[in-house]
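FAQ: What does a ligand-bound record look like?

Like this one, built around glutathione:
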Amino acid sequence: MGLLVDGKWQDQWYDTKSTGGKFVRKESAFRNWVTADGGTGPNGEKGFKAEKGRYHLYVSLACPWAHRTLIFRKLKGLESMISVSVVHYLMKENGWTFAEQENNDNPDWVDIKDHINDKEFLHQVYTQADPNYSGRVTVPVLWDKETNTIVSNESSEIIRMFNRAFDSLGAKPWDFYPEKLQDEIDAMNDFVYPNINNGVYRAGFATSQSAYEEAVSELFSALDSIENRLGKQRYLVSDLITEADWRLFTTLIRFDAVYVGHFKCNLRRIADYPNISGYLRELYQVKGVAETVNMTHIKHHYYESHDMINPTGVVPKGPILDFSEPHYRGH
Ligand SMILES: N[C@@H](CCC(=O)N[C@@H](CS)C(=O)NCC(=O)O)C(=O)O
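The answer part, i.e. the structure of the complex:
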C-alpha cells in the first residue's frame, strides 16, 4: 500500500493521525469523460469520443468501486467494446500489481496481466499518463488506448459513461440513470455512499475507538433504514433497478464474507436482514451479474493485504453463502 509523490512511488499506509483516527477517502484525480460525440462531460470536463475498442479498464475483482464498472460493462453489453485487465488480488508494498499468480486449480484465480501497457505495477500506468502524478493509485482506471492516457479513475463517473455513451454503438438499452429518477438516485447515493459504501471502510480503517464506533453506528442505522425501505418497495428507488442498487450491491455482496469479520462491522450480518438478503440475492441473480463476483479475490485481498488489521494473513473458511437461493422478491 502506498502512493505516488511527484511520480515516485512511496510505500505508506493511510494517514489517520491528522484526522483523529478517522479514515478519510481522497478525491479521485482523473475526472474526464467518454461521451457519445466526444463533447465535454456534464460539468465541462474534457471529452473523449465513445468508440469500439478504444478504451481499456483496469480493475481489481476484490474492489467494490471497480466492481461497479464491471457490472455496468456486463449489463450494458460492452464486453466486446471495452477490454479489461485484472490486477493481482494482493495489494502490498508495491500497491496493485500484475505479479504472476501461483498455479492453482481454483478457477477463480483468473489471468493477471496488463494487456495494454505491459507494466508490472499499476502505479506505472499512472505515471505513463502523468509522469509527475501525486496521489493514490486506485482501481478502477479507464484508459484511452488512442491518446495513451487515463480518462478517469472515478467509478461513480465511469458507470455513468458506460450507462449512456456507447448506446449508439450497440450497447444494450438498459438505462440505470433515467432522467425522471435522477434526483432521487442522487439523494440515495448521497445517503448510501458515506454511511454504507465508505462506511465499512471508515469502520475497518479507523485507528481510534471513537472513530470506529461512530462509523459502525452510522452504518447500521443506515442498513436498518434500507431494510425498512426494501420492505415497502422492490428496489432502492422505485420499482426499477437503478444505478443506486448496483452501488449498494457491491458492498452488500462483500459484507458477510469480509466486512463483518475483517472490518468489525458485526452488529448484524446481511443474513440477519430478511429484506436486504432477498434483494441482494435478486440482484445477484440478474443475468450476468454472478460472473462479476469473485469471492476468492474478495476474501484473499482483504484478509491478506491489510497487515495492520490481520497480521497473520490467515483467510477464514466461512461463512457459507449461497446467493443463488430463491429471493422471494416481487411476489
Ligand atoms: N473514489 C474511487 C475510489 C477507488 C478506490 O479507493 N479503490 C481502492 C480499492 S477498493 C484502491 O485502489 N485503493 C488503493 C489505495 O488507496 O492506495 C472510485 O470510486 O473509483
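Follow-up question: can I read anything off the structure? Yes, for example: The first strand starts at residue 2 and ends at 5.
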